[in-house]
Amino acid sequence: MNNKNRPIGVFDSGIGGLTVLKEIVKEMPSEDTIYLGDTARVPYGIRSPETVTRYSLDNTRFLFSKDIKFLVVACNTASSVSLDRIKSVVPIPVIGVIEPGAKAAVKATNNKKIGIIGTEATVRSDSYTRLIKAIDSDIEVFGLPCPLFVPLVEEGWTDGEIAALIAEKYLEKIKSRDIDTLVLGCTHYPLLKTVIGKVMGEGVRLIDSAVEVAKEVKTILDNSGLSRKEKQNPRREFYVTDSPLRFRKVGERFLENKIEHIELITEP
Ligand code: DGL
What we know:
11 helices; binds D-glutamic acid
């Protein structure tokens, strides 16, 4: 198939990467997309780098077998610990979610104090810190894992009293650092943007990695002559490794759209 007409592949540990897919579809509505959610093995955020890499390589090979032209690693955890390995196994462009978020944060900060919230594995990997410091070594970076945000969002409790209490409890540790920019370094956190924004206050810019990634994918596809400009009814395929029913129910909230064709695969 002509390079341009091949789909964009996106994978995540589960449902959360649909926040990234949503932005990709918004930015490039004519592109065909194939999404893989490794719902049988989620969460990745509490696992060792070796395990996350093994799962990520399975996902990568599966999507590559579907003749994709570009791979987006939508999961912050997989992007943090496995990106180089993923790039080494496929001969197509691959992008993770860390670099676009890190670059946007560096652009946004005035006082050179940036906060990063994400899973345990993402924060422990220091992936954002390394990239931010490589651009400007004077910037101070404060990482904070917020593990309860993931189940909270999946439960649909993205506003109200409980979400506010949990957000306040976690974020007080980072508020005291006088940051002016906070990276939402996990697929699920864009759904908590309003609550997080309220707790952090108006002086703190929130960086949504999903939006930054979609812009970067578009730039790369345009610059390499790989973008597809016009297409009626682009293909939207979804694969999961467990329970398509739950994926559809929760996922439609993340995607803000209908999810039609979901195929269950036993292993990627
Ligand atoms: N997708 C993961 C991330 O962005 C969050 C869920 C998980 O722990 O697998 O880090």
